Amino acid sequence: MSQNIEIEFKNMLTEKEFHYLSSYFKLEPEQFKKQINHYFDTPSFTLKDKGSALRIREKGNEFELTLKQPAKQGLLETNQILTEGQANEALKTGKLPDGEVKDAVSDLISNMNELQYFGSLTTVRAEVEYKEGILVLDHSYYLNTEDFELEYEVTDESEGFLNFSNLLTELKIPVRQTDNKIKRFYAKKYNLLRE
C-alpha cells in the first residue's frame, strides 16, 4: 500500500494536436503502452458525490487498486497492488480485497455491498520528462468514443501550472476545460442511457 498526492494539469487535444505533440517530443510507437481503468461506485454515485474515484488499473499482468480523494492540494491517492485473481473477483462481484483501500472506501460508503463495477476505459499512453514534471500523452477509448489528452504531473502546483500554460501557448494549443477520465466515462455512459 502506498499513498501520494497527485498534482496534475490536463488539456483535451484534437487528434491532429495529439500527433503533432507525439512528433514534437519525438515519441516512437513502442513508447505508447496500453492500460485499462476499471471503474467502481455505488448505484447512487456515493464516491463521485464526495469528489472521489475508485479504479483498478490493469497494465499487462499487473493490477493496482486506487482510491482518489480530494486533498488540500491535488488528490490523495491510496494504492494497493492486487493479484489477477483479486482483480477478477472485484470486477465480478464489486467486493474489494482487504487492505488500506477497502478501509478508506468504507469510510466513504456506509454499505460496502452497494459497490459495483461500472465499466472500463482503455488508454494508450506515452510519458516524457518535461521541466520538473512528466508530460503524458493519452489516447483513450470507451463506450464507442475516443479522445486525446495531454496531462502534466508535477510536485509543485504553481510552477507546474506556469510550465503547462507556457507549453500550450508556445505550441498554439487552446486551453480547454478538461474533466478527468472517470468523469468523461460517466458523462458518456449516462448520455448513452438517455438516448
Summarize this structure as a short list of keywords or feature phrases.
single chain; 195 residues; alpha+beta; eight-stranded antiparallel beta barrel; 6 helices
What would you note in describing this structure?
By secondary structure, this protein is α+β, with helices and mostly antiparallel strands. The protein has 6 helices and 8 strands, in the order E-H-E-H-E-E-E-H-H-E-E-E-H-H. The chain has an 8-stranded antiparallel beta barrel with strand order 1-5-4-3-2-6-7-8, surrounded by 5 helices. The longest helix has 14 residues, at 157-170. The chain is globular, with a radius of gyration of 17 Å. 25% of the residues are buried.
Q: How many strands, which pairing sense, and closed or not: the largest β-sheet? A: 8 strands, antiparallel, barrel
How is the quaternary structure best described?
single chain
The amount of helix comes to: 25-40%
Average pLDDT, rounded to a whole number, is: 93
**Helix count, per DSSP?**
6
| SSE ordering | EHEHEEEHHEEEHH
The proportion of strand residues reads: 35-45%
Uncertain segments: none
Dominant shape: globular
CA gyration radius, whole angstroms: 17 Å
Broad structural category: alpha+beta
- β-strand number: 8
Report the end-to-end length measured between terminal Cα atoms: 41 Å
Main β-sheet, spatial strand arrangement: 1-5-4-3-2-6-7-8
